[in-house]
Amino acid sequence: ETQRLLKVTEDRAAELAIINSVQEGLASKLDMQSIYELIGEKLGEILHSHNIDIRLFDIPNDKVYYPYLMEKGNRISIDPSSFTGMSKYVYDTKQMLVVNEDIPGFMEKVGSQVLPGTEMEKSFVALPIMSSENVIGMVGISDYE
After folding, report:
1. How far apart are CA 125 and CA 35, in angstroms?
2. What's the predicted TM-score (pTM) here?
3. Which of 46, 71, 86, 130 is most buried when burial is the number of CB atoms within 10 A of its CB?
4. Residue 94 — left, alpha, or beta (φ > 0 → left; ψ -120 to 50 → alpha)?
5. How far apart are CA 35 and CA 29, in angstroms?
6. Tens digit of pLDDT for each residue in 25-37?
7. What is the C-alpha to C-alpha distance for residues 72 and 122, in angstroms, rounded to an integer?
């Protein structure tokens, strides 16, 4: 029982350390781009992934913005794109999206394209970013192996 309680305490301490490091980073950076960078980096650390993107949806202007896009450990900067494909799918469903087989088929089905300067992933997970009941963006995690 003591070992179990010690493990729970250690796990909780690790979770709090991550939260504290994000909080410290947010407090030290006031501009939104720096906040996106910090969140993207922390997600990469937590998920042990070098393939993270943060997308923001501008519905009135039919655009998707990419304030953070990391592929295979390289930061990529791309122009806003049309609000279609996987982004629109996540927006419409308000649900987590997991695609771990036949990515080309799924992309064709939802009208998605490979983003300029990136490669097609072998699997993809997307989580909606919610504000109240509205989807305002998404976080994507890709795998290329």
Report:
1. 22
2. 0.77
3. 86
4. left
5. 7
6. 666 666 788 888 8
7. 13
Tokens 């295979």, located at residue: 72
Locate tokens 């927006």: which residue? Answer: 91
CATH of domain 49-143: 3.30.450.40
β-pairing verdict for 81-82 and 74-75:
unpaired
Phi, psi of 99 (to 5 degrees): -125, 110
Decide if pLDDT at 1 tops 90: no
**Rounded CA separation 62/77 (Å):** 19
CA–CA gap between residue 122 and residue 129 (Å, rounded): 23
| Tokens describing residue 6 | 């010690």
Q: What tokens appear for 72 in the block? A: 């295979």
